[in-house]
Design brief:
394 residues; 11 helices; 18 strands; 33% helix
Length: 394
């Protein structure tokens, strides 16, 4: 970054006022057009001041060469790393001195470095390969020859062949390469990222989404790719739209803290409870035709009886008290499932006026999974409040 680059800190949900003369109209237009879901821009009545509000993200948004927005989380960065371990099924342990995190921007660089190291470790024992069917015209016979084509063109000196190729150019490696490619465009990235890209030089660079990762089926030969894809998912999901400023590519990244909190709770519960199935983003149709649906954050099911025990709706932004809309929503979720009579509104901090009520037949409560200090202790406290003992709900 140039020395004249201005950095504006935007803490979560806190309005930051900026005089109109200190931010260009072109910069405001970039924020509004590319990052409206991340940063809210409001102008004063007379237009002499603008207010920027971080909508609950952590990361960095380079607007142009002269301005960058730093999205400052409420949580310690070390806690964000711990949450990411559970949310993305990764091990973010580093050697002493390796995890030197001075600000939020270092998160992306560290994740990219760890991904590169994992790929280099895998390359030492060989990248994962699979047999893929290929068909091409060759000057020699390989695999199966197309007899009909040969009869139709007897004087052709090449052969139309179908054969199996034992190749590394498969989805498992393409996803990792795409994540490295995104990371390589971030400023001051570790050179090991480009080294790992060279290791994957025989792999096609294609655009991938997190849904492609969901489609991967792991086996005993590819099990270590689960970690690689967890890190890749973080990079792919949290990288924003690129900005071209006079031929220079600027790469933003922004972690949606509400999504991270939900993913973390799911991962932590799966890791720390027995006898339960933790469903994430469970869909349930409202009508018989399947045109309308509810999507629950978390549904807890007893693994033995197959009974649905409770629905959890995570709420990262903590109000003074649960809103009527959120209460009505969790009751609607329970009613849609039919057999669920307990709904939980889960916050990362305690609400000032907690909820514990029964409406009709539905028991609705507000609870806390404290992520501001020791997150594992916060989880154990939540389980005790929820009433889970040996994976059984009362």
């Amino acid at each position: 970054m140039g020395e004249d680059k201005r950095i504006i800190d935007l803490p979560e949900y806190q309005p930051v006022a900026i005089p109109a003369g200190e931010i260009a109209r072109s910069q405001l237009e970039i924020i509004r057009s590319k990052f409206s879901m991340v940063v809210d821009v409001q102008s004063s009545f007379y237009g002499d001041e603008f207010t920027l509000i971080n909508r609950g993200f952590a990361g960095s948004l380079p607007i142009d060469r002269s301005l960058s927005l730093r999205l400052v989380p409420k949580l310690p960065i070390s806690n964000i790393f711990r949450m990411m371990e559970y949310a993305y099924n990764t091990d973010l342990k580093f050697n002493k001195g390796e995890m030197d995190v001075s600000d939020i921007e270092d998160i992306f660089r560290i994740i990219a470095k760890l991904l590169a190291l994992r790929i280099l470790m895998r390359a030492k024992k060989g990248l994962y390969r699979e047999y893929k069917d290929r068909r091409e015209r060759l000057p020699y016979l390989r695999g199966r020859m197309d007899i009909r084509d040969r009869i139709a063109r007897p004087h052709q000196i090449s052969f139309d062949c179908t054969y199996q190729d034992f190749t590394q150019d498969i989805a498992e490696n393409r996803i990792a390469l795409y994540a490295l490619f995104l990371a390589s465009r971030y400023p001051d990235i570790d050179p090991i990222v480009r080294k790992a890209m060279r290791i994957l030089s025989g792999v096609s660079l294609l655009v991938h989404s997190s849904m492609d990762i969901d489609d991967i089926v792991y086996n005993r030969l590819s099990e270590d790719y689960r970690m690689i894809h967890g890190l890749s998912r973080f990079i792919i999901e949290n990288t924003g739209p690129t900005i071209n400023d006079d031929g220079r590519t600027l790469l933003p990244f922004h972690i949606n803290m509400a999504d991270l909190f939900e993913r973390f709770v799911v991962g932590w519960l799966r890791e720390n409870t027995d006898g339960l199935v933790i469903h994430a983003q469970r869909r349930c149709f409202i009508d018989s035709n399947g045109h309308f649906e509810h999507i629950f954050d978390i549904l807890i099911e007893d693994i033995h009886s197959r009974e649905n025990l409770c629905i959890i709706d995570t709420k990262y932004k903590t109000p003074d008290r649960p809103s009527s809309h959120d209460i009505d929503q969790i009751i609607a979720y329970c009613a849609t499932m039919g057999d669920v009579q307990r709904g939980i509104l889960l916050y990362p901090r305690a609400v000032r006026i907690p909820l514990n009520a029964v409406r009709e037949k539905y028991h609705v409560q507000s609870m806390t999974f404290d992520i501001t200090a020791d997150i594992d202790e916060g989880g154990r406290t939540f389980l005790a409040e929820l009433g889970i003992l040996q994976g059984v709900l009362p």
